[in-house]
Amino acid sequence: MKYSELEKLKPYRITKKSSDGTFLMDEVIWISEGGEVNSVHGGGFIYPDEGDSATWDFEAEYAENWEVITVNGNEICRKVEKSKMRKCKGRYYKKRQYHDFETGYFH
User: Is 66 in contact with 11 (CB distance < 8 Å)?
Assistant: First the structure.
């Protein structure tokens, strides 16, 4: 996707860097409510009216393992960690341990 196709408050991974090097490969970005483009790895943001066409010619894809959340008016982009779960009949369940009173072991 090109910059003009990106939606606000969704995480994206850069797949083609910008010509001027502002946005680099595999960098995770998101567009805030105010329109600024934020970078997780760069630790900053850039306004849409800054830079020239070489800044905005990058391409990106939706970053499935990242999420953007808003807490008390502050935006946070964080990596989603999968919990240790196992798949059972197409659904994920947490592995439960039970105590065997005869042997004294947990299973």
Answer: yes
Q: Where are the domains of the chain?
A: 3-79
d(CA 69, CA 71): 7
pLDDT (tens, 9 = 90+) of the chain, 107 residues, equals: 999 999 999 999 999 999 999 999 999 999 999 999 999 998 899 999 998 999 999 999 999 999 999 999 899 999 998 765 555 555 554 555 555 556 665 55
What is the rounded distance in angstroms from the CA atom of residue 24 to the CA atom of residue 17? 5
At position 83, the amino acid (one-letter code) is S
Name the pTM for this structure: 0.74
